[in-house]
């Protein structure tokens, strides 16, 4: 299934399917009047790049995409971005703007034979009529190496203008020869403002609902949150909510209509208001208090409300050091890996590594010794306790350093079988100060015993 913003067949571009049905040849222009029976997302498909919502970094004057279209030259473009951000729409608009045949191949169902047949057909069309072909490959990351190799002759000989779309990192999912021949364009998730603009446009435009219904601000906010940056999803939800409203002989979509139509309860959660801070506070305090079930509840509320997963991941990284620290040294690497996973996959799948991290952190032994240690050290520094570095520790690698006594009497820790030698490391002003005091929980218990032995050796001088 395609994952583009408006990627269902356009009713007025529905050329006969060929072969196994894995491809669609839709030669001709985009529809000016879509059939009213088509899904709202299809009827509201942009008719030009200027109508495309979001992705302004790709649409600015002089941008690579504009140059490709204005130059009207054979091209190879790789569109990488989350679902519902406009990949399929951009491909079809390139075809329309450059007056080329548009053939779509889905990597879910097409094989090597289908790919070669499409390229052969494009080659014939170019030889017989001079008409060029835009070949759109959706979910190209699902193609095997052999299937991606089959695209190369068409690309190298410019028999087709290849536009491939993927939600996966192309550096890992697309073969090197194809990636090196492609202009990589990265699409971004649509913002809340972008999604709201799409809803309002669909409500008013004759291609959409044509003013037949309106929507309350609360219902609009609910749909925007549920969309998660996916334009097609929000139009699908809007169409369902409008149908539920009209079935009750009303013309204003309420939040209850939206919740009923989408079968998702409206979570009262303002990402800029009190709910955001209250739920976030409860989330962190539940993890700190080791209540894994409460922590998962608040995570679910944030996920369902469309909170930025990167924000959640950042909070977990902070918590891993602030409230766990050395009691479980694996906590921070787990939180950091979670943040990386979230950045790569996004919602909805990101909820899984987030939940795993929450469970790990909530059930981990707790310690705030790291926070107390750095705060105590900062307090001394801010009080002016910043004495000179002991001469034995000063840099002795430059000419004349030895004459100044730098490095003299420095003792190399590895020369001692214990790995620790009696030596002054801190300035005189804070020599003997204790900042880090491990707690009794988790890994800090044995660490505290070891640290006591180390400090005894260091100060036995």
Give the structure's gist in a few sentences.
47% of the residues lie in helices and 8% in strands. The chain has 461 residues and is α/β, with parallel strands linked by helices.
Overview of this structure, please?
The chain is an alpha/beta fold and 461 residues long. It folds into four domains: 176 residues, P-loop containing nucleotide triphosphate hydrolases (Rossmann fold, 3-Layer(aba) Sandwich), CATH 3.40.50; 71 residues, Helicase, Ruva Protein, domain 3 (Orthogonal Bundle); 90 residues, Zinc Finger, Delta Prime, domain 3, CATH 1.20.272; 80 residues, Orthogonal Bundle (post-AAA+ oligomerization domain-like). Strands 1-2-4-5-6-3-7 form a seven-stranded mixed sheet, with helices on both faces. The chain has a two-stranded parallel sheet with strand order 8-9. A hairpin with a 4-residue loop joins strand 1 and strand 2. The longest helix is centred in the first third of the chain and has 17 residues.
């Amino acid at each position: 299934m395609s994952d583009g913003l408006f990627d269902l067949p356009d009713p007025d571009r529905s050329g006969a399917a060929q072969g196994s049905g894995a491809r669609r040849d839709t030669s001709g222009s985009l529809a000016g009047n879509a059939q009213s029976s088509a899904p709202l997302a299809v009827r509201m498909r942009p008719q030009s790049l200027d109508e495309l919502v979001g992705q302004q970094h790709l649409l600015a004057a002089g941008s690579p995409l504009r140059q490709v279209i204005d130059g009207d030259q054979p091209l190879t473009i790789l569109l990488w971005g989350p679902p519902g951000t406009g990949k399929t729409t951009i491909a079809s608009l390139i075809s329309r703007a450059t007056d080329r045949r548009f053939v779509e191949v889905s990597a879910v169902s097409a094989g090597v034979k289908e790919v070669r047949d499409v390229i052969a057909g494009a080659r014939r069309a170019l030889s017989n009529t001079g008409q060029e072909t835009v070949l759109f490959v959706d979910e190209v990351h699902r193609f095997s190496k052999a299937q991606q190799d089959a695209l190369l002759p068409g690309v190298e000989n410019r028999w087709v203008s290849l536009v491939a779309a993927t939600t996966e990192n192309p550096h890992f999912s697309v073969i090197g020869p194809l990636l090196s021949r492609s202009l990589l364009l990265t699409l971004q998730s649509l913002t809340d403002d972008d999604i709201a603009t799409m809803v309002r446009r669909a409500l008013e435009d004759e291609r959409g609902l044509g003013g037949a219904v309106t929507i309350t601000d609360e219902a609009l906010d609910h749909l925007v949150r549920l969309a998660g940056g996916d334009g097609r999803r929000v139009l699908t939800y809007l169409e369902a909510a409008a149908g539920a409203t009209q079935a009750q002989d009303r013309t204003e979509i309420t939040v209850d209509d939206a919740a009923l139509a989408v079968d998702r309860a409206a979570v009262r959660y303002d990402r800029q208001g009190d709910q955001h801070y209250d739920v976030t506070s409860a989330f962190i305090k539940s993890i700190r208090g080791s209540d894994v079930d409460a922590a998962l509840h608040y995570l679910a509320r944030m996920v369902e409300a469309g909170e930025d997963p990167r924000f959640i991941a950042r909070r977990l990284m902070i918590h891993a050091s602030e409230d766990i620290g050395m009691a479980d040294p694996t906590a921070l690497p787990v939180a950091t890996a979670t943040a990386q996973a979230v950045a790569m996959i996004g919602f909805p799948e990101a909820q899984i590594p987030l939940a795993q991290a929450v469970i790990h952190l909530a059930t981990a032994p707790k310690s705030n010794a790291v926070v107390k240690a750095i705060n105590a050290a900062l307090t001394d520094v801010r009080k002016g306790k910043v004495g000179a570095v002991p001469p034995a520790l000063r840099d002795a690698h430059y000419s004349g350093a030895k004459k100044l006594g730098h490095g003299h009497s420095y003792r190399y820790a590895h020369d001692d079988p214990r790995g620790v030698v009696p030596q002054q490391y801190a300035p005189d002003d804070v020599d003997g100060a204790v900042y880090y005091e491990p707690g009794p929980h988790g890994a800090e218990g044995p660490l505290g015993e070891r640290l006591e032995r180390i400090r005894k050796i260091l100060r036995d001088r």
